[in-house]
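Input sequence (186 aa), recorded before submission:
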Amino acid sequence: GDDCGLQETAEGTPPIHIDGTVVERVASFKFLGIHITDKLNWSTHTDSIVRKAQQRLFNLRRLKKFGLSPKALTNFYRCTIESILAGCITAWYGNCTALNRKALQRVVRSAQRITGGKLPALQDTYTTRCYRKAIKIIKDITHPSHCLFTPLSSRRRGQYRCIKAGTERLKNSFYLKAIRLLNSHH
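Predicted structure, token format:
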């Protein structure tokens, strides 16, 4: 040990304590359906949902072979595949790599070929959900994030103050994306 009373872990970083209990460090964990890594990148999460969605594509292909209508196939896609791809999308999609986004969109394109109809791009789903979520937060004054949506002066009605982003991660975060969307809709 050292004079400060801090013990270092094998990685050379001091352990984290919460209420006197040491918190175990892990490379990644799943929380509320999202894979979170110690590096805060989304590759583990996107790889996982792409794999899961591709498994569901098999079922979509079988349903097409059974002669289901394009509308029924699209409904199946929306319920079983899109729900996997877009789960908590506002939390992670903004900071995905181009490679991750390409893999996700490949699943959508495959489903589109199978259903025979036009399906929304994941980027469009992300944008729509960011906008809707921002509106809900603005309307709910009890929401913990309500204070992050600060209106500009009364002359610029419908415009919100955008905080300066010092990092790409912050620039691509839900809050800044949502504020940019809100400001572009007025």
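Checked by second reader. DSSP finds seven helices and four strands in the chain.
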